[in-house]
Amino acid sequence: MSSLRVKILQLKDMPLDMVLKKVMFKIVRQIRYGIRRYWILAVPIQLDRSLMTGFQSHGRHLFNIQDRIRYVEGMKGLKQEESILIDADRICLHQFNLLGSGETDLGERIPWNKDFKTNDVWKNEFYKHIQIINLNNAADVKVPWELSRCQHFFTLGKAYWLTNNEKYAKEFQDQLDDWMIHNPVEMSVNWTCTMDVAIRAVNWISGIQFFLNSSSISSSFWERIHTSLYLHGQFMMNNLENTGDHTGNHYLTNLVGLIELGIYFGEFKITDRRSRNNDPQAWLRYGIAEMEREMFVQVNNDGSNYEASTSYHRLVTECFLYTTVLCARNEIYFTESYMRRLEKMCEFILTIQKPNGLTPIVGDADDGRLLIVSQYSSWVRNDYRHLLAVAGEVFDRNDYRIAGREYQEDALWITGSFKADLDSVESRLQSVAYPDGGYYVLRNERVYCLIRCGELSFHGQGAHSHNDQLSFELQIDGLDIMIDPGSYVYTADYRKRNLFRSTSMHNTIEVDGEEQNDFDELVLFLLKEQTFANCELFDANHFVGSHEGYVKKCGVIHQREIHLSDQTLEIIDVLKPMESLNTEVPTYYAYYILAPGVEVVQHEDQIELRHQHLTVELSNYAALDIEIHNCWVSSQYGVREWSRVIRMKGSEPKLRTLIRW
Predict the structure, then answer these.
(1) Do 269 and 280 form a contact (C-beta atoms < 8 A)?
(2) How many domains are contained in the chain?
(3) What pLDDT digit, counting tens, does each position of 322-346 carry?
(4) Which of 146, 160, 634, 655: disulfide with 168, CB 3.0–4.6 Å?
(5) What CATH number should be reported for the domain holding residue 629?
(6) In a domain, 530, yes or no
(7) Where is the Heparinase II/III-like C-terminal domain (predicted)?
C-alpha cells in the first residue's frame, strides 16, 4: 500500500509519455521476474564449488593476519580482552541484542529469516516476490537483515585470536553453513536488499581473515564460502540500488561491497555463460569509478551528507573512510579533491559533536554500520568518535586523534596503528555553520546549541528528514537539556514513525495544527519540501533563520532568532503574516522536548528545569497557556523511553523565551 502511494505521487506530475514509458518498463520487468523465478525454481543458482579448490585471496585486507601477535598485544594493552570474550561467548550461545530487541536467546539454530522481536517469519520465495513491508502488522524486516549482516563475526574472530580456542572457529563455520543452507541465492528475504548483501559480504571477508589458519575448518568449507561470496558479487552487479531519482547510502554500500569483493578475488574469474557480470575486476573498476563520483553527489561542499541525517552521515563516512583505507592498502588511490571532501566529512563529525562527545540525532537513525570492530554489544549509537580515531591516523591530525582517544582499538584494526602519546591539548571548538547541510552550532565555554535550518534530504525529497526546521538541541555543562527525540522505528509501526518525524516532536513552532512539510501517513520515506528554510544571519553567538512551511497553509512565515550569551539563551519567534494574504496570526504551539532525567517544576511565572547539579530557568512572554506532558524519546532504533515536553500556546505574532542557567 505504501509503495503504491509513493509511485502514484511520483507519477502524477509527469508528462503522459513518460508515465507510459515507466508503466511499460514495469510490465516488462515483472514478466522478466516471473520467468526468472521459474528458472531458479527449476535450476537453483549455484556454481561448481570445485572451481574454488585451493583459491586464496592475494588482496590485502584492512588488517594483516601476519601481524596477529601485534593485534593481540594491542587488544590486551587497551584492556579490551574481557569485554571481547564476554561478547563472543554470548554470540556462541546465540544471544543477541539488535534493534531494540533486548538480550534475546535465539535458540540452538539462528532464525536468519525471522523477526525474532515479533516472531514473524519470511518464507523462502523468489526475492522480488517477497513482501518485505506490511504496515498492518508489526513485523520489521530490518531484524533479519541486521542479523544476516553478520557484523558479530569480527568479535568472534578477535576472541579466537586472543584464546586460540577452536570453539570460535567452529561457531563461525556452523553459522555460515547454516546461513547458506537456509538462504539460497535470490530465494530468501536476505536477498531483497542489495545494501545488506554488500554489508554481509564485507563482514564475511573480515571474518575469514581471523580463521584462515584454523585447524578445525575443512578445505571444503572454504570452497563453500568463496562460492557464495562470488555469487554475492554477481548479485550486487545485477541489483544495484541506483535506479531512483537519487542515490544514497544504499548505493554507496553496494559500491563498497563490489570494491571489497573485487580486491578479494583479484584476477580470479569463473566463466559461466548463464551468469552476467561475473568478472571481479569489472566489479572493482565500476566500484572505484562510482565511489569517486558519489563522493561529490552524496557529500555537500561543506562536508555534510545530503541525506540530512547525522546518523546517516556516520554510516556514509564509515563507508568512504574504511574503503579508502582498504584501497590504499592495495595501491588504489582516489583524487586529491575526493580526499579533501572526505576530510571535511570527518571535520563535520568533530565540530558538530557535543562537549560530552555525543552527536545530536537529527533526522532518521537506524543504527546502520558497515563494520563493528570494537564494543560489539555496547557501542553507543550517537557516539561517532570511533571514526575520528581512524581519521586521525588517515589524515595525521592530532585533533581527530584527541577527540577519538577512547577508540584507539578502531584505529588499530582499520589503519594498523594508533598514536597513543599526544602532546597537544584538546582544542576548544568554536561556533560553526554548515549551510549546505543545514546545521548551525552556537557554543561558549558552558553551552552547546545546535540549530537545524536547511534543505530536506535528497535535495528536497525528504526521505530521511523530519519536520525539524528551526528546531534546536541544548546542552549545558555537558548535560542535555533539550533534545531531538530520534526516530524509534520505520515500517514496524507507521504511526510511531510519523509521530517521531512530526513537527510537534521537535523543539520548534507548530502553527494551527499543521505540519511544516506535509506527508502521507502511509508513505514513510517521502517528505516533499515546503519549508525552504533559510539562514538569514549567523555568527559566534547569534542565529536568525526562517522557513515557508506555513505560508500556503496558514499565511505566515516562521522566523526564529536565537542569541547566546554567558548565562542566557534568548529565543524570539516571529510569525510574519504575508501581506498579500492579509491574514491574522493563527494559534500556534512552541514545543520543548526535554532530555530524560530533566526534572520539571512549574511556577506561576516560569518553569524550573533541574538536571543533576544544574538548574535552568525557562520564562516566556506572550504565551497564553503552558502545559507539561509525557512524551517518548529514542536514542537508538527500536528503543524508546519516557521524557517530558513543554508546550506553550500563543496567538500573538511574537513569542520571546528566555533560558537562564
Answers:
(1) yes
(2) 1
(3) 999 999 999 999 999 999 999 999 9
(4) 160
(5) 2.70.98.70
(6) yes
(7) 430-661
